[in-house]
């Protein structure tokens, strides 16, 4: 349908929908929309189409789509002011964006990237939000070079990804900081002028604060942007200020509709599907690849006598067992009962850190695939581990040689739906 939008008005379009500017001049998060160009509004997202001149939009609405017209830009003035300052200050090259969930972090990154692009500077986005990640799949940090105006970070091709294995930073903060910092260094070495680091909305509590302050310290940005409704990230911003960082406090757009956990899960699933599309089953002997973030493969399979000792203490014969000097990894058969007191006995007897899993628990576990030089190649999910023959069977769209498999903690089913978290395969 054709919709006329007067100069100064904004059409808020909630997906699934597509929008083509057929007449006039429209912008979206600072990007000029060429006539005839189609913008896809994904399900569970709302995009503000701003009429710079009287315009006509050709809008196609899907099932749950909605449209609403409002007067005046929905982008707060303070966003414009902050972006101008960030881009005009010589040496302001890396910007980190902090804020609670649904405060507009991703949209601010998009807006800043579009404005940076207008000034002709080479721009990159590092999407450090493991859950609501747009550049990479959930469980990864993606880095993308922005070469044309963007309306949705989801459409960007990642230059490279870093696999963290979880959809929340809790428990993997050090791994995450190392990954984000490495991507920043990579972007700097590529001569990128404006590097934008997006973060997740985990800001409440000491653990979250410690993570975010450490991230600021380690990535050493020239600008720290805090998006707040009230004072959600004030504790992190005041720390950054004390440490001498340039802090920008900006408001969250009033029109943002909060998404519930089911909607956030649906958005994550769009991300998994993008990276698992076209997956086929591959078999990889464990001896051909290195395994990381897991105790599996770090030890030697147990000799018969030692296996018998484990069986005696555990009360049943394990399907597979391996150990190194500090850890014991036991796989029980699917139907064997594992009793807490037997686990305690194993720990007391063998005096090692114990990992105990059941055959089949691995089905659906997300994995990151890398080459021997730790360059990210693709994502996969484990279909089955044949422990006895030491073979991994993995669904992945990646077809070439794999050097390293990093184990994640999220389970995904064949349709790309999240099934939960499994920690027993992970270090
Ligand atoms: N200025 C704005 N005008 C209209 N819609 C907006 C504006 N800013 C953000 N939105 C919409 O609000 C929703 C939430 O914004 P956004 O995804 O940027 O928040 P976020 O802080 O990154 O959220 P998350 O915690 O999920 O990562 C999105 O659908 C986005 O398109
Ligand atoms: Mg976001």
Describe the structure.
With 427 residues, the chain is α+β, with helices and mostly antiparallel strands. It folds into three domains: 2-71, Jelly Rolls; 77-272, Rossmann fold (3-Layer(aba) Sandwich); 278-427, no CATH class. Helices cover 24% and strands 34% of the residues. The protein has eight helices and 27 strands. The chain has helices at 77-88, 105-118, 173-189, 206-219, 234-242, 261-276, 304-314, 340-350, and strands spanning 2-5, 9-14, 17-23, 26-28, 31-33, 38-41, 46-51, 55-61, 66-71, 94-99, 123-127, 140-146, 160-163, 194-198, 223-228, 247-251, 280-285, 290-292, 300-301, 320-323, 327-332, 353-358, 365-370, 376-386, 391-396, 404-412, 418-421. The strands form five sheets. It has a seven-stranded mixed β-sheet with strand order 13-12-11-14-10-15-16, with helices on both faces. Strands 17, 18, 23, 24, 25, 26 and 27 form a seven-stranded mixed β-sheet that branches. The structure holds adenosine-5'-triphosphate and magnesium ion.
Q: What oligomeric state do these chains adopt?
A: single chain
Q: How many beta-strand runs?
A: 27
Q: Rounded to an integer, what's the Rg over CA atoms?
A: 24 Å
Percentage of residues in helical conformation: 10-25%
The CATH architecture of the largest domain can be given as 3-Layer(aba) Sandwich
Ligand types: adenosine-5'-triphosphate, magnesium ion
Report a brief summary of the structure.
Helices cover 24% and strands 34% of the residues. It is built from eight helices and 27 strands. A hairpin with a 3-residue loop joins β20 (320-323) and β21 (327-332).
């Amino acid at each position: 349908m054709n919709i006329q939008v007067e100069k100064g008005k904004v059409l808020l379009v909630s997906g699934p929908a597509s929008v083509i500017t057929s007449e006039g001049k429209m912008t979206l998060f600072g990007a000029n929309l060429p006539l005839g160009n189609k913008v896809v509004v994904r399900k569970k997202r709302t995009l503000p189409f701003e009429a710079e001149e009287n315009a006509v939009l050709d809008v196609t609405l899907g099932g749950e789509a909605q449209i609403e017209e409002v007067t005046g830009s929905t982008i707060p003035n303070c966003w414009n002011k902050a972006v101008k300052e960030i881009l005009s200050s010589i040496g302001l090259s890396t910007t980190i964006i902090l804020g609670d969930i649904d405060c507009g972090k991703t949209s601010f990154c998009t807006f800043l990237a579009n404005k940076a692009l207008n000034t002709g500077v080479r721009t990159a986005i590092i999407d450090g939000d493991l859950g609501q990640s747009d550049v990479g799949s959930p469980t990864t940090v993606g880095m993308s070079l922005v070469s044309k105006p963007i309306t949705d970070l989801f459409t960007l091709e990642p230059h490279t990804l870093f696999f963290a294995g979880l959809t929340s930073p809790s428990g993997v903060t050090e791994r995450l900081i190392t990954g984000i910092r490495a991507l920043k260094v990579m972007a700097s070495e590529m001569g990128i002028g404006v590097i934008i680091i997006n973060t997740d909305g985990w800001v409440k509590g000491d653990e979250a604060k410690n993570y975010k302050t450490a991230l600021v310290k380690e990535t050493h940005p020239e600008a720290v942007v805090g998006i707040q409704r009230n004072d959600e990230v004030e504790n992190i911003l005041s720390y950054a200020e004390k440490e001498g960082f340039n802090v920008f406090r900006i408001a969250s757009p009033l029109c943002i509709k909060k998404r519930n956990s089911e909607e956030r899960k649906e958005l994550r699933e769009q991300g998994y599907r993008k990276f698992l599309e076209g997956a086929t089953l591959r078999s990889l002997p464990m001896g051909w690849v290195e395994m990381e973030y897991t105790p599996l493969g770090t030890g030697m399979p147990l000799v018969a006598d030692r296996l018998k000792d484990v069986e005696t203490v555990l009360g049943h014969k394990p399907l597979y067992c391996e150990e190194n000097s500090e850890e014991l990894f036991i796989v029980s058969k699917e139907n064997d009962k594992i009793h807490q007191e037997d686990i305690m006995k194993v720990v007391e007897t063998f005096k090692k850190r114990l990992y105990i899993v059941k055959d089949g628990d691995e089905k659906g576990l997300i994995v990151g695939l890398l080459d021997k030089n730790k360059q990210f190649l693709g994502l996969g999910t484990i279909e089955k581990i044949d422990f006895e023959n030491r073979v991994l069977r993995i669904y992945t769209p990646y077809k070439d040689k794999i050097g390293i498999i990093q184990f994640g903690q999220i389970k995904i089913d064949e349709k790309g739906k999240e099934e939960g978290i499994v920690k027993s395969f992970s270090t």
